[in-house]
């Protein structure tokens, strides 16, 4: 199962609150690289919610590929950026920020 760090939850929440048209964030695999984009929930989606609202969406195939990965938000010029790390850590899974 994809692990989401508290920093990543904060960044996801910040993206959704600052961009009202973004209903959720979709993780996609494109040309061997994972990307994030604005998304709407689809029938077969794997959905991770925060406070009862869809926050992160992905196909079952992408969810399987990310099973042992960690979504984090690293400090970068201009603010935190979402990044996938290769190995799970003891971060929060599928729950909103504490």
Helix content: 10-25%
Q: Characterize the overall form.
A: globular
Q: Termini separation (Å)? A: 19 Å
Q: What structural class do helix, strand and pairing data support?
A: alpha/beta
The strand count comes to: 7
> What is the element string, with H for helices and E for strands?
EHEEEEHEE
Strand content: 35-45%
* Major β-sheet strand ordering: 3-2-5-4
What would you note in describing this structure?
The protein has 98 residues and is of the alpha/beta class. Helices cover 19% and strands 42% of the residues. It contains two helices and seven strands. It has helices spanning 6-18, 60-65; strands at 3-4, 24-30, 33-39, 46-50, 53-58, 70-76, 79-85. A four-stranded mixed beta sheet has the order 3-2-5-4. A hairpin with a 2-residue loop joins strand 2 and strand 3. It is globular and about 30 Å long. The model is unreliable at 91-98 (pLDDT under 50).
Task: Give a short synopsis of this structure.
This protein is of the alpha/beta class. The protein has helices at residues 6-18, 60-65; strands spanning 3-4, 24-30, 33-39, 46-50, 53-58, 70-76, 79-85.
């Amino acid at each position: 199962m994809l692990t989401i760090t508290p920093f990543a939850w904060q960044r996801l929440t910040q993206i959704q609150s600052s961009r009202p048209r973004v209903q959720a964030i979709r993780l996609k695999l494109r040309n061997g690289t994972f990307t994030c984009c604005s998304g709407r929930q689809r029938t077969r989606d794997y959905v991770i919610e925060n406070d009862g609202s869809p926050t992160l969406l992905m196909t079952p195939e992408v969810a399987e590929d990310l099973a042992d990965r960690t979504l984090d938000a690293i400090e970068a010029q201009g603010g935190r950026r979402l990044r996938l790390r290769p190995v799970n850590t003891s971060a929060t899974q599928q729950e909103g920020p504490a």
